[in-house]
Specification:
With about 200 residues, this protein is mainly α. About 80% of the residues lie in helices and about 0% in strands. The protein has one domain (about 5-195). The protein starts with a helix and ends with a helix.
Length: about 200
């Protein structure tokens, strides 16, 4: 299997999870954190089946590893136009995923429920928000940009990079504001904020 095929195959395996994960966040943005938590519960029961988790983690490792190899092999700094944006957004997304998935797995190993409260705790913990606000905004912008460009390029369509990036940026900023409690009333319970002092 070629590197690009591995990258595309693992992307397909991750797509179902990412669509449902982002749908929970979109519902939370529109209807509030309680709606997010209610919607995510049945999906978490599916995604947390041991075999499915192993497949998702394997796909994530394959996706990130093949993406970084493609980035290095292609020497992205020489690329122009959409390919450069595809590479930059992919690198940003890979960095986020390595940090985020490691944090989720570490928290779960200590018995912490990694629901919306876990993600939002840093945004409601004083100076930690200075890290988490750009962290989540860049991650969502990178995800929407990388996936959007991949889909449009695969279909042979001209990709309006500014439009795609602005959609991602708007969604990312909206999620940050929602998790910070600035769109809907939302206070993360103290047990999740305790990790931030």
């Amino acid at each position: 299997m070629t590197l690009i095929r591995l990258h595309r195959l693992t992307a397909l395996l991750l797509a179902a999870f990412l669509v449902s994960h982002m749908a929970h966040h979109l519902i939370g943005l529109i209807a509030g954190p309680e709606a997010h938590l209610a919607l995510s519960a049945p999906f978490r029961a599916i995604w947390r089946q041991p075999l499915i988790e192993v497949l998702l983690l394997a796909a994530l490792v394959g996706q990130t590893g093949s993406g970084m190899r493609l980035l290095w092999r292609g020497r992205a700094w020489r690329w122009r136009g959409l390919r450069r944006w595809q590479a930059i957004s992919g690198a940003a997304l890979a960095g986020f995923l390595m940090i985020h998935v490691s944090a989720v797995l570490a928290a779960r190993a200590t018995g912490t429920d990694t629901n919306l409260h876990f993600a939002a705790a840093g945004l409601q913990s004083g100076f930690w928000a200075l890290f988490f606000a750009p962290y989540y905004t860049v991650a969502v912008t990178a995800l929407v940009t990388h996936a959007g460009l991949a889909v449009l390029r695969r279909r042979g369509q001209q990709a309006p990079i500014i439009t795609i990036a602005l959609v991602g940026l708007t969604f990312g900023l909206g999620l940050v504001l929602m998790m910070a409690g600035l769109i809907h009333p939302y206070a993360v319970p103290a047990e999740w904020r305790a990790a931030f002092g």
